[in-house]
Amino acid sequence: MNLRIVDLPGIAVIGMEGLCTPGHNIVSELWQQANARFGEVAALAMKEKDGSLVGFWGAMSDESRAFMPWTENFQRGLYLAGVEVYKDAAAPEGWTRWVMPARKYLAVEVTPGQYGEIFSEVLAKTLPEMGYALAGAVCDHTKPATGQDYLFFPVKARGE
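Given the sequence above, the corresponding structure tokens read:
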């Protein structure tokens, strides 16, 4: 498993928001909506020096919007399918803007079909072995320049 610890500043994301529940996971629907209307927010997207986009985020939060883990065995919570934007960017009508808090994350590379397996392994085995506990909602991230997908697990030292 390819992983690394990263400290990220607060990250602004503009996207399509919805509530996932155990009976209705709407993540793919939210990405379809965001992709179909991406032209409305493309100019707001944060870019690398080479002009490529910094990244797409599947930002997650508990229903209180405190960026804590989803409830009901990680099956119920808010999801924001969006693009990383500059901090002063305002969300156009019909879009939602979140600012994810600055945190320490364990970033883990994933490939399609591995999300559930890696999610479970990191929570049950990797975090405890590294002396960490989950500190908030797990997010997914795609780096457009490489197409690489990641899961970002907010972490804190056990006992903090």
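The chain has one domain: 3-157. Try to locate this feature in the token string yourself.
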